[in-house]
Write a structure and sequence with these properties.
Layout (H helix, E strand, L loop, with lengths): L5 H39 L3 H37 L3 H28 L1 H8 L3 H14 L3 H15 L5 H23 L9 H26 L15 H32 L4 H37 L6 H31 L6 H33 L4 H25 L4 H9 L1 H13 L12
Helix pairs in contact: 1-2, 1-7, 1-8, 1-10, 2-3, 2-5, 2-6, 2-9, 2-10, 3-4, 3-6, 4-5, 5-8, 6-8, 7-8, 9-13, 10-11, 10-12, 11-12, 12-13, 12-14, 12-15, 13-14
Length: 454
């Protein structure tokens, strides 16, 4: 009869572990997002053109964030399974490989943003006024990309061993630096010059450097759980390189697909007028605000899933997966309602034209619907399927939706002069459609695979 007590006990353990892992990860994601949001919000008081310029500039950072996020996700998926076996030596080798990959990505983005900003921005917008506003922002923020890449990979390494609170604290420190400098440099306070968009870029650069220094010191000099040392940066285990290429490539490739999707999104939006671009920017900020929270919870589910698979606790995965799906269906419904009810409050922070206000309300209404699907499908496909070992399926699924459904439908909508909200719906429709795929794939339970080298 003792077996009858396990579901309740398991349920209680699930929620406690989810909160312990998800809260710091989500808060760190939220605070990291807030660094760019602070630029967006403060510059937003300068009008439609300024906010449109920052929007275009931040999309380049978003592309890098997708790629570095993919590297970090590959690290977490593989390293958590080794953490289930308590094999920290292999984890250090995985971190080294991913760190060098992150540095390479950061350097490439920095070179293009600093040396060829006109080329990059020209692809994202055809409007000369928006181009001029984005140019100084991209040149300066581009310098921060290498620092950002290193910080995010190292923070992901800590997540893989369930050390999740540090990322939240370091992101908070970066936010405080950014907001303080934004206030001084955007508006010209305390004797500083009023630099507007350029001031916001300088503030972001300094905050990313501060974040980089804190993370580097902590991981290599303070943390004892992983035991990372600088000498580890030149050590590569061939078996782990092969494993990371085999299992990590689909993860990174999947995020590259989303980077392309983000790039196409910006290129499509960049064809609209400044007031409509401002509306897309505000809706995008609300989307990111909610997305980082949900992705944090999905990341926590992924850590729990990977650890269970690595430790060989396969029997407990079915009730666990059912619980995850039910919980995040509820999370999606509550989140969608929250987005719908708070849209007016968010928009009121911006000094934008009446046309931009109307457009923002329409786009966020669409978002309140699609975000419900995001909560379920992201947690199911990333937190369970991908983290459970079936990495290639999620990559293939994302690729099909982006290149067959999302981008073509959005282009068609633009060609036929559809209203902005209809274009936005096309760009977000996959969030609902993926739910139908997720419910079938998850409940077949063919995604459980141990990725560790025996």
């Amino acid at each position: 009869m003792k077996h009858t007590m396990k579901p309740d006990s398991g349920s209680e353990h699930f929620y406690k572990t989810l909160v312990r892992l998800a809260l710091p990860i989500s808060l760190q994601n939220l605070i990291t997002f807030a660094v760019n949001f602070a630029d967006n919000l403060m510059v937003g008081s300068l009008g439609d053109l300024a906010i449109s310029g920052v929007f275009i500039g931040n999309q380049i950072h978003a592309l890098l964030q997708f790629i570095v996020g993919g590297i970090g996700a590959a690290l977490v998926i593989l390293a958590t399974q080794y953490w289930g076996k308590k094999d920290t030596k292999s984890i250090r080798s995985i971190i080294t490989i991913c760190l060098w990959a992150g540095i390479f990505a950061g350097v490439v983005f920095t070179v293009f943003s600093v040396c060829f900003p006109s080329l990059v921005i020209g692809v994202l917008t055809i409007r000369s006024d928006v181009f001029a506003s984005a140019l100084p922002y991209v040149r300066i923020v581009g310098i921060s990309f290498v620092f950002f890449a290193v910080s995010q990979v190292l923070i992901a390494s800590l997540r893989s061993v369930e050390k999740v609170r540090f990322g939240m604290f370091v992101a908070l420190a970066a936010l405080c630096v950014n907001v303080s400098l934004n206030y001084c440099l955007v508006f010209g306070k305390f004797g500083f010059p009023a630099l507007g968009v350029t001031g916001a870029a300088i503030a972001t650069l300094i905050s990313r450097i501060v974040e980089f220094i804190i993370v580097l010191i902590y991981v290599f000099a303070i943390d004892k759980r992983i035991g990372m040392a600088f000498k580890d940066l030149v050590r590569f285990e061939k078996q782990l390189v092969s494993s990371l290429i085999k299992y990590g490539s689909p993860v990174v490739a999947g995020d590259v697909v989303w980077a392309v999707n983000s790039f196409a999104y910006t290129a499509i939006v960049g064809r609209f007028t400044a007031d409509t671009i401002a509306a897309f920017n505000i809706a995008g900020m609300m989307n990111t605000l909610v997305y980082v929270w949900i992705s944090g919870m999905a990341g926590a589910v992924g850590i729990m899933t990977g650890k269970m698979v690595g430790a060989g606790e396969i029997g407990g995965l079915k009730p666990y997966a059912y619980r995850v799906q039910k919980f995040f269906l509820c999370v999606g419904a509550i989140t969608g309602l929250f987005v719908f009810l708070t849209k007016g409050a968010l928009i009121s922070f911006y000094n934008i034209s009446p046309e931009a206000v109307i457009g923002s309300k329409q786009l966020i209404t669409v978002l309140s619907f699609t975000i419900m699907g995001t909560a379920y499908q992201m947690t199911s496909l990333f937190g369970l399927v991908k983290s459970g070992g079936n990495i290639s399926f999620v990559f293939k699924n994302d690729t099909i939706f982006v290149f067959v459904v999302v981008i073509p439908s959005a282009i068609i909508a633009v060609v036929f002069n559809a209203p902005a909200w209809a274009v936005f719906l096309c760009l977000k429709c996959d969030q609902i459609l993926k739910c139908f795929v997720a419910v079938v794939v998850v409940n077949r339970f063919k995604w459980v695979r141990n990725l560790t080298v025996v």
